[in-house]
Amino acid sequence: MSQFRTEISLKKSSFLIDYQSGSFFIGSCFSDNIGKILYDLKFPVLLNPFGVLYNPFSVKNALTAIIENNIFTEKDLNFALGKWFSYHHHGSFSNPEKEKILRKINSQNNLAHNFLRKTKILFVTFGTAWYYRLKESGEIVANCHKQPAQLFDRAMLSVVEIVDVWIKMIEDLRLFNPDLKVVFTLSPVRHWKDGAVNNQLSKSVLFVAIHEIIKKQANSFYFPAYEIMMDDLRDYRFYADDFLHPNKLAVDYIWAKFCDVFIEDKILQISKQIEKINKALNHKVLHPETEAHEKFLKAQIDKIKHLSKQYPELDFTTEIKRLKKEISTHYKSK
Questions:
Q1: Angstrom distance (rounded) from CA 184 to CA 27
Q2: In Å, how far are 29, 42, 241 from 232, measured between CA atoms?
Q3: pLDDT tens digits, residue range 279-304?
Q4: Residues 152 and 80 reside in one and the same domain
Q5: In this structure, is residue 6 part of a structural domain?
Q6: What is the DSSP letter of 101?
Q7: Do both 149 and 232 map to the same domain?
Q8: What is the 3-state secondary structure (H, E, C) of 170-230?
């Protein structure tokens, strides 16, 4: 029978993700989506310690701050619309209380510094070549934080600019962690506010830049998330309501392709057991006070304990605590 779609065939990577070695995700939406799945399946993963970042220079600046383990202070913050924020971070790093946001920023940076030093794979996702530069300081910002447009100049990075900065960035990463593998991806999310032509131009710049970097740096690779979305899943039924972001069906499909490349079957079998436990824990219960539900909760604890004995590196502390609390809440008299 004829093929009715252009499925992308992928080869297994020579380096793989497991439950002993960490993976670090930074950048745009691919990092969030795939990194979150790995996190939920108990893989050792660190996900966007500066929040979602879109342009290559902001990703580079974040990694430099992580390598140097910078300490952010009040002078690195700005205040507007009732909140303190950092132009180096996503809007999720903002708070009405200055001390709280500094504590969050610095704890995440320190965590990322220690994690990056020993991690096995760094996944970097570029979202757009467009950037905003503060007129007052000349610095490229990671996020405009809904500040007035007149504060910024907007322009597009060139292939040469991206390649030059990232060749040096990878050299710095290898000095910090000599065994690190770097996997680039291009976000399939279209930046429609730039318009159809400018969005495609931006993605083209990023695509060429990534492959120039890979040609010049050993142990640098590419995962075709963009091509899977645009060429394989060429249908709006794979998009969210905004027709720009991949929906759950698409994310799950890209995740399956990711597994084909980076995860061994025996490791996937473990993650599938964890996925079953997660689904059971997230199941909405109509009558939690029944004896049947009590048995169900205890059965989940037994499954977790059995899995933990087989794989001691897995941490189910939060899940066990939650299950025991639910049992004690509904069955105190028993």
A1: 10
A2: 19, 29, 20
A3: 888 877 777 778 888 888 888 899 99
A4: yes
A5: no
A6: H
A7: yes
A8: HHHHHHHCCCCEEEEEECCCCCHHHCHHHHHHHHHHHHHHHHHHHHHCCCEEECCHHHHHH
